[in-house]
Design brief:
Layout lengths: L21 H21 L22 E5 L5 E3 L2 E2 L3 H12 L7 E5 L5 H13 L5 E3 L8
Parallel strand pairs: 1-4, 4-5
Antiparallel strand pairs: 1-2, 2-3
Helix pairs in contact: 2-3
């Protein structure tokens, strides 16, 4: 007696080893719908009336220092031209020794290269200036 393994010609179908993904997709869609419905309920937001406040313009004190950088990269100390970066650093070292230390406000032209403004920021860092700010124009209301 011989036994035959494998395909047979007597009409039996071969074993199908592929996974039927239809039930998996059905379950995932049901879970997705459940999560979409329950997420807004779970994230509660406590009603709080927030204050409506506008940005107040900066009050420039006379002791504050404004350093301006124009389009060409020229430096200005309180509207007076600065010869070079070394002169700027020397002035910043003098300011850093003052008690209380004044704030330094940087006004950079929007068309100037970033490296020109970065030179001023680096000089402030090296001189140990504690408060450095950037002056900008407010956005137009519309």
């Amino acid at each position: 007696m011989a036994m035959q393994i494998g395909s047979s010609d007597d009409g039996e179908e071969e074993l199908n080893a592929s996974i039927n993904t239809t039930p998996l997709v059905d379950v995932m869609l049901v879970l997705l719908i459940i999560f979409l419905i329950t997420i807004p309920v779970v994230t509660k937001n406590i009603p709080v009336k927030l204050p409506a406040e506008e940005n107040q313009p900066l009050q420039t004190k006379p002791e504050n220092i404004t350093i301006a950088v124009d389009v060409e990269g020229n430096l200005f100390w309180n509207n007076q031209p600065v010869a070079d970066e070394d002169a700027l650093r020397n002035k910043l070292y003098e300011v850093a020794r003052q008690v209380p230390q004044p704030e330094v406000h940087i006004r950079g032209d929007q068309e100037t290269r970033y490296e020109n403004v970065n030179k001023v920021v680096e000089a402030c860092q090296r001189a140990a200036i504690q408060k450095v700010g950037f002056i900008t124009e407010p956005a137009p209301r519309g």
